[in-house]
């Protein structure tokens, strides 16, 4: 490696690593010098380096000390140069740590992990999702992208925050979109419905373009934009307005606080829907037989997907094939 190449590498290295390398070089240099000057007091190079580190850090055990005037002059130079350098290094590391924490809270730090979930938009739905993931899938890694937040208390929320727009390539690259396994796009509550849907569709297009294999769930508010969201690349489209309208209707006409439907909605919050393949030992069996098998695991078989079509509560004598997928309702398990 040429001197020019070394200096290029050195100045491209993060400052705290450069300082650490400089401190280490100083200690080794002074350790060799004191061993050369006073071989009797410092019989090995290691002992010389030990003395240099202890003296330069101003700890001063006193187990090894120079005995000659020349050795003492070397010690003075070490205290002046090395001590100041060590102090400067510690101050730089502390400042870098504080800056990193601030940048992390402000969403400026890139995410380096893989197989994570990306949430687009910070709102009440996203907060509840994060809490559910934390409770039932604590090993899951979540990255949040939002353009309205200026900072987020990362110690309170176990997520990695990226500040920016979910439709911009630079923001998605910071979230390591190419290595993510799923993305959930929620509607922006600050926009009117049609504008929010257009923003969600634009986010879907951008994500699909950067990661063709990612699983995308997109929230849409207006019925007219559902088809556009699917064309944009959404694997699943959720229209939250449909569910909310149903809740309002039943709340309006329910008989009392113990209305069964109202209770049902609360119960569903502790359940999860799953799409699974037909177990090998149940291929060729009836839907009824399969239902009984799943009940033994406390899972409820709701229906199946056969030849691309969804069938909820199909005839009990329907024969299952290995090409079918089952729709199962299961309790959320930690």
In words, what does this structure look like?
This protein is an alpha/beta fold. The chain has 11 helices and 10 strands. The strands form 2 sheets. Strands 3-2-1-4-5-6 form a 6-stranded parallel sheet. A 4-stranded antiparallel sheet has the order 7-10-8-9, with helices on one face. The two termini are 54 Å apart.
Runs in which pLDDT lies below 50 for 5 or more consecutive residues are none
Q: Strand order of the main beta sheet, please? A: 3-2-1-4-5-6
Quaternary class: single chain
Shape: elongated
Helicity range: 40-55%
Subcellular location: Cell membrane
Keywords: Ion channel, Ion transport, Membrane, Transmembrane, Transmembrane helix, Transport
Pfam families: Ion_trans_2 (PF07885), TrkA_N (PF02254)
Domain RCK N-terminal: 114-238
